Amino acid sequence: xxxxxxxxxxxxxxxxxRVRELGEIINQDYSDKQLFVIGILRGAAVFMAxxxxxxxxxxxxxxxxxxxxxxxTKSSGVVRIVKDLDSTITDKDxxxxxxxxxSGLTLKYxxxxxxxxxxxxxxxxxxxxxxxxxxADVEVQYNGFIIPDEFVVGYGLDYGEKYRNLPYIGVxxxxxxxx
Length: 179
Ligand code: IMP
Ligand code: MG
Prior knowledge:
The protein is an alpha/beta fold and 179 residues long. 23% of the residues lie in helices and 29% in strands. It has one domain: Rossmann fold. It is built from 4 helices and 9 strands; from the N terminus they run βαβαβββαββββα. Strands 4-3-2-5-6-7 form a 6-stranded mixed beta sheet, with helices on both faces. A 3-stranded antiparallel beta sheet has the order 1-9-8. Helix 1 crosses helix 2 (45-52). The longest helix is centred in the N-terminal third of the chain and has 18 residues, at 12-29. The structure holds inosinic acid and magnesium ion (MG). Magnesium ion is lined by residues 43, 68-69, 158.
């Protein structure tokens, strides 16, 4: 897998340090709230597993899956719920955990959909943010790293379902996805 990468942009150590910091902030912000964490499958699974172990508060956990890019590296803007929550979020303080916000179209759709279920609050936590590519306006309250407009893989992020298990985040060689 490593030979498909141009470079590593975030090491294992950098990621774990930042995840620890995010956990501390979330601990403070949600100390008097009814925290309900929603992980967006499949990309956020790795980040979420690490993040929730830095959260020292009672919380509930659930997952949602939406249709993604398929094999392309650009958002189609078409979002479909493939797996919905199993529990209700009414009156809960929802924290959506995502791997990366790119165009923002995916999260925009998810937030609007979840709002209609009347939670007490909704906030977004993303490991990575590519603000230069934003199309939809979404407010991200917790952001791990701002990254440039490059296609990255690892630590949950995939290209064609590969590379999710890399323990760091790297940029894919352009020839890998232009093939
Ligand atoms: P958006 O709707 O354009 O914000 O796309 C968000 C989704 O696109 C993320 O949850 C990822 O699954 C995928 N995505 C966007 N950029 C990248 C990337 O650089 N690497 C891997 N997946 C990405
Ligand atoms: Mg994906």
